[in-house]
Design goal:
- The protein is α/β, with parallel strands linked by helices.
- It contains twelve helices and 13 strands.
- The protein is about 35% helix and about 30% strand.
- Strands 3-2-1-4-8 form a five-stranded mixed β-sheet. A five-stranded mixed β-sheet has the order 11-10-9-12-13, with helices on both faces.
- A hairpin with a 4-residue loop joins strand 9 and strand 10.
- The radius of gyration is 20 Å and the shape is globular.
- The termini are close together.
């Protein structure tokens, strides 16, 4: 589907990702793609007007440098700053569905209903069973307002605010054929974020995410463990994780240093996954690719881990995609934002 009116901006804890493209039924054309990493500030934990202005300046410069002239933008934020659940509901009309879900909201949303914005997305309808699978995503009104204020300074017009699972579900629903053709076991996706990780359970029959689980362990915890145990600065530790190789460990025993975090990571996966299964990584795994081999080495049940890198053949070839083809797992949630 052609997207002439908007582009997608994903705001993470320490990164901004931008994509402007065209997505059809069988091809992805990326016109503009870029990201800024290791940002000096975050809008998720800083609430001053000065922060908003500085952050908006970062966004404006990135969009300007990419020569994107569109004003409308779809905004994606990390799962960890939202409250999400996939619920199986009876086949109801829209008004009845909203009422029923609001009644259940306090089971997974720890905020008063008047303090949140709730979005509902019907991801599957089972006519035989007369049921719906509904993705419920809620965000605090305070955070939504903060993002709106930042965008006001940029001059951009937000048309939609969603989380990563919502965007990724659209991407995987449209392009699930390259998953089903390559993996026969149960599949789950591992979205490694900065402060948390989300597990998305894939329903092959319907090409949708059928269940989600988020836990507070992400890339930054591996990085922090390394910082505690070395005397290096942030950039050096960042480079160590990015370039670590189990076959050529060098002078820093990263595997031993992060072992407590690795064990907790495996515990969270084993708690949710019934093997045999395949776990496909997206997100910040590009910052620590060796994590995949470390998990394979240390897990004691039949779960195979790999990175989810979409086939190069899906993309229309141009200089943009050539420059970013090794980083595409980092952008899969952003790409989902381009799908209407």
């Amino acid at each position: 589907m052609h997207n002439p009116d908007f582009f997608t901006l994903e705001i993470n804890e320490n990164a901004i990702k931008v994509i402007d493209g065209k997505i059809s039924s069988n091809e992805i054309e990326i016109n503009k793609i870029s990201f800024l990493n290791n940002l000096p500030l975050s809008i998720f934990n800083q609430d001053t007007l000065d922060t908003y202005k500085k952050f908006s300046d970062i966004i404006k410069k990135l969009v300007y440098d990419l020569k994107i002239n569109k004003k409308k933008v779809n905004i994606i934020i990390p799962d960890t700053y939202t409250y999400s659940q996939i619920l199986k509901m009876p086949l109801l009309n829209e008004k009845e569905l909203i009422s029923a879900i609001k009644y259940q909201a306090d089971h997974f949303i720890p905020l008063p209903i008047e303090d949140i914005n709730i979005d509902l997305e019907i991801i599957h309808q089972n006519e035989k069973e007369k049921t719906l699978l509904v993705l419920v995503a809620a965000v605090s009104k305070k955070l939504a307002q903060k993002i709106e204020e930042v965008l006001e300074f940029t001059g951009l017009i937000p048309i939609f605010l969603e989380n990563q699972v919502s965007a990724f579900n659209r991407f995987i629903n449209k392009f699930s054929f390259f998953i089903s053709n390559n993996y026969s076991s149960k599949i789950f996706f591992i979205n490694l974020g900065q402060s948390s990780t989300s597990l998305y359970f894939f329903d092959k029959n319907n090409s949708i995410i059928s269940k989600i689980h988020n836990f507070n362990l992400g890339y930054s915890l591996f990085l922090k463990e390394l910082q505690i145990n070395t005397s290096f600065d942030d950039k050096k530790n960042y480079d160590i994780l990015k370039n670590f190789d189990l076959k050529n460990k060098g002078n820093i025993d990263v595997e031993t240093i992060i072992n407590p975090i690795t064990k907790q990571f495996i515990f969270e996966i084993k708690k949710m996954i019934t093997p045999p299964a395949t776990g496909l990584f997206i997100g910040d795994i590009i910052q620590f690719p060796a994590l995949i081999e470390i998990l394979i080495k240390n897990i004691d049940i039949p779960i195979f881990f790999s990175v989810l890198n979409p086939p190069y053949s899906l993309f229309k070839k141009n200089s943009q995609i050539e420059n970013y083809k090794e980083k595409l797992p980092f952008f899969l949630t952003t790409l989902g934002g381009e799908i209407e």
